[in-house]
Amino acid sequence: MNLEPRPPGLQETARSPHASSRALARSSAGASARPYAASAPYLFLLPYFIVTAVFFLYPLGYATVLAFFQTSGPVRRTFVGLENFSYVLNDPDFYKALWNTLLFAVASLFLQLPLSLGLALLLNARQDRLKGFFRLAIFSPNLVGQVFVGILFAMLFTPQYGLFNKLVFALFNTGLQERWLGDPALVMPAVIIASLWLYVGFNMIYFLAALQNIDQSLLEAARIDGAGAWQRFLNVTLPGIAPVATFVVVTSTIGSFQLFELPYTLLRQGYGPNNSGLTIVGYLYQFAFDGADLGTAAAVGWILTLLILGVSLIQIRLSGTTRKDR
């Protein structure tokens, strides 16, 4: 039986129904998979959105509403409008807490940070193998936390037997019987001294990282041009670490306004004589947990938030790090 081969056109025509059906199936499968592919990134981000909504957005909204109520525990509440804010802004204890907090923040900026920068400059100049050891030794106090440091320094400040009093007596032949935690004038200096041991090494790490990123050719060129150490620091080093310095200043200020655990444990779960160690967060704690007035505590929290926001924006603006010409 002699069969003639079909022309190419007839072969394609014969296969076209099956090919078109397969192409149609592939196109429909691709179209159905396309929405899932587009939503895949959002599925990966969904846990983050849930955690943010549960632990940030909901508490933020609830605290906003709660600030306009006077509460007695978590259930009983009475709407009072802006009376919580008015009460706080007219309470002498709030301004006492604000003064103590500002004093600590100023000490952090003008005492703690210069010490951190000085240590970073010393470590950056060293080229021996002990550099890593000293870096770890100076940073390590930050690993133990504020509660431990508060308990430790409460013993160090003990009259007559405390090591700090013995050190002062050895240097100045006085101060052995000094009651650092019992004298209202010495409570905040004691808190500042304890915080220096805790945070100087922490901020030193930031400054040290910034110093190591400075272009050494600029320092060498300034040295060849006859610039002294102080001139090189002002004209090369300081501009080079300006963004990191701004970050450290802002974060240190925020941390200073959030101070609570260190003075609370240092003063043995109190605020010192005449509230000499009371901070804004400690003032909030009094309303929230000692007085069960969550509404006034929420109002204090919002006042603190606005204070931190205002001070941080001023610091960032004065630093000039947001200018477009930088």
Work out the helicity level.
over 70%
CATH topology of the largest domain: MetI-like fold
Helix/strand order: HEEHHHHHHHHHHHH
The CATH class of the largest domain = Mainly Alpha
The CATH architecture of the largest domain can be named as: Orthogonal Bundle
Number of helices: 13
Question: Could you tell me how far the N terminus lies from the C terminus, measured between alpha carbons in angstroms?
Answer: 90 Å
Class from secondary-structure proportions: mainly alpha
- What is the percentage of strand-forming residues? under 5%
- Radius of gyration computed on alpha carbons: 32 Å
Per CATH, the superfamily of the largest domain is MetI-like
Shape: globular
Question: How does this model look, in words?
Answer:
This protein is an all-alpha fold and 326 residues long. It has two domains: 8-66; 90-319, Orthogonal Bundle (MetI-like fold), CATH 1.10.3720.10. It is 73% helix and 2% strand. The chain contains 13 helices and two strands, in the order αββαααααααααααα. It has helices spanning 8-66, 83-89, 92-125, 131-139, 146-156, 163-172, 184-212, 216-224, 229-240, 242-257, 261-266, 280-290, 294-319; strands at residues 69-72, 76-79. A two-stranded antiparallel ribbon has the order 1-2. A hairpin with a 3-residue loop joins β1 and β2. The termini are far apart.
